[in-house]
Amino acid sequence: MAWNGGHQAAQASGRPTALVGRHAEREAIGRLLDAVRDGLSGVLVLTGEPGIGKTRLLEYAADRAAELRVVRLTAVEQETGLGFGALHRLLRPFLDRAAQLPEPQRAALDAALGLASGLPADRYLVGLATLTLLSGAAADEPLLFLVDDGQWLDRESAETLAFAARRLHADSLGLIVAVREGLGDRGLFDALSTQRVPGLPESEARILLTSGTRRVDLAVADRIVVGTGGNPLALLELTDALTAEQLTGIAPLPDPLPVGRLLEDHFQHLVRALPSATRTLLLLLAAAPSDDTGLMWRAAGRLGLSVRAVEPAVAAGVLGRGMPTAFRHPLIRSAVYAGAAPGERRRVHTALAAACDAVQDADRRAWHRAEAAEGVADEVADDLEAASERARSRGGYSQQALFLSRAADFTGDPDKRAERLLDAAQAHLMSGDASAAGTALDLAGADIRGPVMRTRELQIRARAQMFQLGVADVPALLMNAVTRLGPRDPRLTWELLCEALHAALVAHDATRDTTLTEVAAAVAAAWHDPAPDTATHGRDLLMEGLARRVAEGWEHGAPVLRTALDRLRGGAEIGDANSPFAVMLAMAFDDLWDIRAGRELSERLAAANRDAGALYALSITLLVEATCDLWDGRFTQAEVRYAESDDITAGTGFLGGGDINRLHLFALTGREPELRAAVRRTAQLRGVGLGLHQLLAQHALTLFELGQGHYRQALQHARAVFDDDPPSCGNRALPLLVEAAVRVGDRAAAAAALARLEERAPLAGTPWALGALALGRALTADGDEAEKFYQESVELLGQVPLALEQARSRLLFGEWLRRRKRRSDARAQLRAAYRSFDAFGAVPYAERARTELLATGETARRRTEETRFDLTPREWQVAAMAVAGLTNAEIATRLFVTTSTVEFHMNKVFRKLGVTSRRQIPRTIGAPGSDPGASR
């Protein structure tokens, strides 16, 4: 092909500046800018192939945002390993406001940006700090952030931006991110509004191609348009690269046309035509951050380059005229770096490393030294390991992993290399990248020697599988690790066993190569009671109690679980923020029928998760809180928690969200299609080891069928739970089984369930346990003796936050009274049950109570679907927190949103409810004090 690079300089200033076409993209940008001007927020992710026009659209947005403050950032491929580096560059103009942040947020942000030392910063607290900082700045002046080449953002910065973007709502702030397709895709921006930028339509591409100063034959134009797929950059560059004879049709066009990789070759051809000093300067610019000109010119001085070296690049159109140290297009930067010889790249990185301050810029210095090194270089590896520790202290786990992996590349000692790769794998896991953790473990494989190192490998692999919901193999993997470790480290052995028990309890009967009972027996045998004042004593006791419950029986586990819950309630450390301790906690309080302990401890755990910004753990804790809400008849509050949990899982990449968590809500509200679909999903998940979910599904189906009056089906589901007797719902199913068995006349099944209640409930001794026992006795009693048991059940269940359970007891009592022809007494119980179920939204049970009321001669209106004031889950959440006395700022902190967003939702709550103050909300929505399901 004949290249005509000499035309580049002439055309650089003569190209059309007007944006051709792009109507859909311009409309999307216009809507975003209008929202920001109106005090709202907008987020847009532009995706497309290189050269498709994403950068030009960012320029268009900046031109249309004259009244907004525009902040621009171009990510650099060579700095993807510098965690929080891009975020630091983005926030630099606003860091003078950091002192106004709440203390936990300020400390987290300072740690992340390396401005202060301290504990590792939780990335979600950093995200909240970023959100608070920027929304505060936008309150003074509307802001528009434009991020180009978003695929090169370091992972920590990308996560922080995505976190903040998902929570923008009413903040006078806009964010547009341009991302190249097929590169750097971590799914972090998937939940955001996305606009794919395609090639220009043929008519518009032809306009762009023929609007320059060079004449293009129409037939040639058609060929170029088709051959480039309407890629604007390819169209423009081809008018510079092709000869006049080719453009006018005298000479043939090359086949294929220079698009894609060949387009990069074109840019490299332009660069190769420049003087040597200019080429070196361009390579330096490609390897350095675009906004740190001081570093770049210090390095240039070490290479003997002068400022005049930029002039030929500007004249050739490689660098911009307005900013002579900025590439005209991001693709040119990539082409310059990729096209340089390895020795030239190492020489430039050596200069950059020497130009970096050894103290203030130690991480960037270590990275450039690594890029300049070859072969084994232990000093470079040590610097990288030191940088990884600094990254860890900032909470930059992805950066830590990258530094450690690079350190391993330069490490000569096999043991040291393996240790660094194991540490890298653990750091990847902490960043949420289980796949990268597995890759690091595979790289370490041949160098892993000795039982302790092998144990670490197995533990990290097990944790990675748990994160990806591959639970079935985890217990055996961890038990293998225990065997390999032997007696060398008792505390690590206990930690491994507890993780194995957690996985086995979740897998239940779906484990492979071991069983739940075997794991529990090993945990019980290994237990050694530490000093009672140790921070983990309450958690350790709880794990011992669950192990003994499974391996030795309920009567052996229950006393230990009672001691554990009492210790935790007494102020012991509630749990590790990085692990879903709420799962084990829920099993313990369910197994002891202790709803008070459950509500208190789950609330404490949720608060600890929020304070630490531990959103993964919080997403699980919210599910436990939602379950407590269900048993107390707070269905709306439960849905709010489910929605918040789903929002968190969507943001963290955890796979555990969705409707499988709403099984009981669907059952109690009578939403059969959704319930059946969720049950099918639990059956599918059993294949990866989530066996416990199938038992939870059976328990939910029992509740559903009882509400419908389908007792034989309810008996079948309840019997499955009874036979397995899991800590999670085994005891809760007992009164349900008694009810179903009595209704179908299966005396043996009823007697077996009641016998288990008789054995366990007195030992548990809680109002819930004794109320369930009284209900079981009432259902199986002969004659008038049942009445006192029904009364006892209603009274006991009314002592604790179990409004749903009490309403069910009233319903059964009313049904018994009606069958005894005591219509007046029956109406009192049935009326109370109906009103409660109706207020909760328990449609099947409300209809069952209504039907019974009709049989007594009393009329009750059938419940109709209502909008509940059309409040969204988020508005319900804000309203509930306002009723609880939280300020807007406190609500914003708890929900990980901005204060202005809370104000926006609160205004909508006021308008929809027709109220003018917070004091009026409780009476309107049935909050504590007026709700039949109010906690006791």
Radius of gyration: 33 Å
N-C termini distance: 83 Å
Would you tell me the overall average pLDDT? 86
Helix content: 55-70%
Spans of at least 5 consecutive residues with low confidence: 1-16, 927-936
**Based on DSSP secondary structure assignment, what is the total number of beta strands?**
5
Structural class: mainly alpha
The major β-sheet equals: 5 strands, parallel
Number of helices: 47
Query: What is the beta-strand fraction?
Result: under 5%
Report strand order across the widest sheet: 2-3-4-1-5
The 3D shape can be described as globular
Question: Which labels suit this protein?
Answer:
936 residues, disordered N terminus
Protein described:
- There is one protein chain.
- The protein is 63% helix and 3% strand.
- It is globular and about 105 Å long.
- Helix 14 (293-302) crosses helix 17 (342-355), helix 27 runs antiparallel to helix 28 and helix 41 (803-819) packs antiparallel against helix 42.
- The relative contact order is 0.06.
- It has 47 helices and five strands.
- Residues 1-16 and 927-936 have low confidence and may be disordered.
- It is mainly alpha-helical and 936 residues long.
- A five-stranded parallel β-sheet has the order 2-3-4-1-5, sandwiched between helices.
Short summary:
The chain is 63% helix and 3% strand. It has a 5-stranded parallel sheet with strand order 2-3-4-1-5, with helices on both faces. Helix 7 links the parallel strand 3 and strand 4.
Detail the topology: elements first, then pairings.
Layout (H helix, E strand, L loop, with lengths): L6 H6 L10 H15 L3 E8 L5 H10 L5 E6 L10 H7 L11 H10 L10 H18 L2 E6 L6 H12 L6 E8 L13 E3 L5 H9 L7 H11 L3 H10 L2 H4 L13 H12 L3 H12 L5 H10 L8 H5 L14 H10 L2 H14 L6 H11 L5 H16 L3 H13 L4 H17 L3 H11 L6 H17 L6 H12 L4 H18 L8 H11 L10 H16 L1 H16 L11 H11 L3 H18 L2 H17 L3 H18 L10 H7 L2 H14 L6 H17 L2 H14 L9 H11 L2 H18 L2 H14 L4 H13 L5 H17 L3 H18 L2 H13 L17 H11 L4 H8 L3 H15 L7 H5 L11
Parallel strand pairs: 1-4, 1-5, 2-3, 3-4
Helix pairs in contact: 4-7, 5-6, 6-7, 8-9, 12-16, 13-16, 13-17, 14-17, 17-18, 18-19, 19-20, 20-21, 21-22, 21-23, 22-23, 23-24, 24-25, 25-26, 26-27, 27-28, 27-29, 28-29, 28-38, 29-30, 29-31, 30-31, 31-32, 32-44, 33-34, 33-35, 34-35, 35-36, 35-43, 36-37, 37-38, 37-39, 38-39, 39-40, 40-41, 41-42, ...
